[in-house]
TrEMBL record, chain A:
<dbReference type="InterPro" id="IPR050601">
    <property type="entry name" value="CPA3_antiporter_subunitC"/>
</dbReference>
<dbReference type="InterPro" id="IPR039428">
    <property type="entry name" value="NUOK/Mnh_C1-like"/>
</dbReference>
<protein>
    <submittedName>
        <fullName>Na+/H+ antiporter subunit C</fullName>
    </submittedName>
</protein>
<keyword id="KW-1133">Transmembrane helix</keyword>
<keyword id="KW-1003">Cell membrane</keyword>
<feature type="transmembrane region" description="Helical">
    <location>
        <begin position="70"/>
        <end position="91"/>
    </location>
</feature>
<comment type="similarity">
    <text>Belongs to the CPA3 antiporters (TC 2.A.63) subunit C family.</text>
</comment>
<dbReference type="Pfam" id="PF00420">
    <property type="entry name" value="Oxidored_q2"/>
</dbReference>
<keyword id="KW-0472">Membrane</keyword>
<feature type="transmembrane region" description="Helical">
    <location>
        <begin position="28"/>
        <end position="50"/>
    </location>
</feature>
<keyword id="KW-0812">Transmembrane</keyword>
<feature type="transmembrane region" description="Helical">
    <location>
        <begin position="6"/>
        <end position="21"/>
    </location>
</feature>
<dbReference type="GO" id="GO:0005886">
    <property type="term" value="C:plasma membrane"/>
</dbReference>
Amino acid sequence: MEALYAIAVGVLTACGIYLVLRGRTFPVIMGLTLLSHGVNLFLFASGRLALAAPAVIGESADPTDPLPQALVLTAIVISFAMTAFVVVLALRAAVELRNDHVDGVDPEEDWRP
Amino acid sequence: MNHLPVLPILLPLITGALLVTLPRLGLNAQRFISLGATVAGLGLVLWLGSMVLEHGRLVYALGGWAPPFGIVLVPDRLSVLMLVLTATLAVPALIYACRGDDDAGAHFHALFQFQLMGLNGAFLTGDIFNLFVFFEVLLIASYALLLHGGGTARSRAGLHYVIINLIGSALFLLALGMLYGLTGTLNMADLAVRISTAPAADQPLLQATSLVLLVVFGVKAALLPLLFWLPRAYTAAAAPVAALFAVMTKVGLYAMIRVFPLVFALDQPLAALTAWQWLWPLALATLALGGIGVLGATSLSNMTAYMVIVSTGTLMAIIALGSTEALAAGLFYLVSTTLLTGGFFLFADLIARQRGAAGDYMVVTAAMKDRRTLGILFFFGAVALAGLPPFSGFVSKAWMLQASLGEGAAGVFWPLLLGAGFLMLIALSRAGSKFFWRQSPKREHDIRADRVRLACVIVLVGAGLVLSLGAAPLMDYTRSVAAQLMTPGDYVGAVHEAGLNLKGGH
């Protein structure tokens, strides 16, 4: 299970980094989302992976660590809000700058203000 | 328990929430509430400061939960220095904004308060995940503040700023996950103990974690390969926002000198840390790049943004030396440079308002109405920023040069610091002569400077003189801050003792 989990985190992070380095805002936002998924899974695993172990003391003989779950919850809330914000910002920039490049200029289009 | 340590966080939070929920309040009422809360905040942090001076360090357990499981606020001398600096800069910046800049978009005052809340929280907390949360609070407020007023330049700069900081946050979480996975705690004092007793097999991972944290804090502080978002963002931001942002880069620096000496260097000298060894060359390169940038800037606000980079480079280089004296000198410089660069962002706006379409760009245009007042002020401001006597910039530079001599690092540090200062002097003289001496023969602009705005700039530039005349008490204080930072064992002891007291009480 650990190997599968590690591969999933690795693939998500690698895809996220690749997309973040793209030139247009939409892939960059997708990259940020994948990156935050990878990070959330990584945070979750910092409490060690365990099967059939609830995060509540007293429910089972061997409860799992509840803290990473709380951390992931915080991280999810923040990244969810930030994704919404960056989508709106990218839309606004695309309308104002008349293209969706992260630098605000389209290198292929010969367009002058 | 005394609840004073949490008030600098609660006051802006409640004020900000109030301002959001009462949208029908007129702008004047909003200004009144916001300004009142900010001035009260300054009073609060001064009060907290007097308590900290008395006890050396306070430990406040949020909700009465004992550390290391509960979150603690640990206001100590460094926190107080940063809190007072932030509040001192916030008051003139807010007064400046109240003269009309706050009308350019919605919710300026609420965002300003949330920004202050994030800054105060980051300076107070003793829990590293809580530090992340307050970083997010101040960043989210800063995203919206940067875009305040709208326009293409701000959208473009905002996109870069938001994306790089989101990646920074993702890296911060990765580092925290690694720390928690290795040690099972997030309380900084507890982390310090666990890391100093960590098995040898964990050392490579801990070192990797410390380097990831260096990158995260480097993004915030604008260290060389991670600083290219800064000039555009700070130039595009509205003047009062840029002035407050002058303290934002210092949050990254604060996080470094809070986390590294405490968490990673409990049982070894600071200079032996891998992250700290990376800091020295990167800081010097930042300093050099900042100097070149200042010379090539196209407008006064752009030039001030590069001066923020120069000050980051200088500060990082001096703290990278790792001695108590160097740290003390660096903290004195931090106070002086933050107030002056903040003041100069406001000053650039003041000049731009007098020059019509030319703004604060380095072009020759018709004469300004208040050229005498502004010219004299510019002269003093430039002297202060370039680090010439009798201003505090000179005192701090002389002290830093002395401190670096003791570390045997003078051969590299002196030429770069003095060279950057010289480049700043050239750039400022060039700007001054363009603005005040060379005038096109067109009819002069007839817009007068707003008296209140002018007063805000005078206060911040004058702070340079006050800090220089009254340098001795502040120097003694930064020495005591540095001494406290260099004895992280006391911090750990205080938090541990607070935990035991709380458990004993139940």
